[in-house]
Amino acid sequence: MSLPLIRPEQGELGQVAKAIRDTLQQGGIGLIPVETTPALCANAENASAVGTLWKIRGIASEGETRPATALHVASRQAARELITKVIQISPLQSLLIDRFVPGGVQLAVPISDERLPTVLESIGIEPGVADENGQLLIRVPSHPLASLLLEICDFPVVMTNARAEDVAQPTTVEQALDRLNSAGTGDLLGTAAAAEPHPAGKASTTVRLELDGSLAFLREGLLEERFVRGQLRHTVLFVCTVNTCRSPMAAAIARNLLPEGDPGDVPIDIRSAGTTAMAGMPATPEAVKAMDRRGVEMGSHLSTPLTRASISNAWRVYAMTQSHLEMARAIAPPGTTVELLDPAGADVRDPIGSGQSVYDQTAEQLSVMIAERFAELGLTGATTA
Predict the structure, then answer these.
(1) Each residue of 288-344: pLDDT tens digit?
(2) Of 57, 194, 319, 321, which is the most buried if we count CB atoms within 10 A?
(3) Maximal CA-CA distance, the chain
(4) Are the CB atoms for 156 and 78 separated by under 8 Å?
(5) Which residues pair with 71 in a beta bridge?
(6) CA dist., res. 2 & res. 176, Å (int)
C-alpha cells in the first residue's frame, strides 16, 4: 500500500513539521524536500531508525558500504557550536559559513579517533552515523519545511538523499516516493511531505574544513567550487575623483603592505575607482614616479568609474575626501562600510597639477593612513589577489 503524501496548504507548514517530528520521535523515517534533493530523515539517536533509513536506500546488511548521512542542524550558530567542539574555525572557513550556511553546502569537519567518541557522545549519536573517513558531516538546510522541522526537534537528526546510487537525483518528493515504491522500500517510510520550493535535483557541495584553516572541495554539487571560492574574498576599494592619482597610488601601496597570508586567511582584492572617472585613463606620470621611488609597483593601471556594482562588492570603501565619501555613500547598498581613508577625518589633498614633491608627500601620507586602517582591520595575515 502506497504511503499518502502530505501536501501542506498555506499556513500549515508548521503542522506538517510537527507530524514529521512525531514520526521521527517514534523511530520512523520521513521523506521531505530540502533545497538540494528530496531527503530521508531519521532520529540519529535511534539506531534502529538509522538502520531503516539505510534499508530504504537499498543497504540491506552492515557489510555493505553505507551512504553518508549528515547531521542536520537548525541554524548557522548551531553548526558553529558543533564545529568548534572539533576544530578552531579560521577566518576563511568562517566566511564560508557566513555566506553559504544555511544552504547547499555540507561541511566535513576532520576529527581524530581520540576525540570522536567524546564529540559524538555530546551530540547523542553512535559512531558511523554522521561521521565517515575521520570527519563529521554537518549541514544546515535552508528549505522552510526542513528548517521548521529541525527547530522543533529536541533530538539530533540525520538526513541523506532519497535515491539509489546508480540513478539521477529526483527533483520532487513525488518522484522520490514513486521510485522508492517501485524499489519496494517505500513501505518503510513513516511520513512523506511535499512543499515548495521544489529541490534543485543536485546534491549538496561538500567542503572539508582543513586543520590548517583552508578549504578542500570534496564534492561539487549544487554550488560549483569556482563560484564558492569567488565569493570568499574581501575587496578593499579606494575612491578619489578621476582615479589617476590618489586612489591608484593608495591601491598600489595597499597591495605592497599586505603580507603573504596563511591558508586560512581570507584573500584580499585591492581596487580603486573615481567618482567622475572616465574608463581607461592611465595613472599620471608623477603618481607612477612616486610609487617607483617607494619601490612600489603601480602596474598597468587604467581608470575605472565608481558604480553601484563596484561598491556593492566591497568589504571596505575608503574615500579620499568628504565629498568622495558622500558620493560613495549615496550609491552604496545599505550596510556597506564607507569611511574616509584618514582615521583622523581629514581630506587627502589632490596632487594633480602640482610638482613631484607633492606627489611624494601624498604617497607618504597614504602609506601611513593605509597602515593604520589595515591595523584596525587586523589585516596582518591577508593575502593579495
Answers:
(1) 999 999 999 988 999 999 999 999 989 999 999 999 999 999 999 998 999 999 999
(2) 319
(3) 89
(4) no
(5) 138, 158
(6) 13
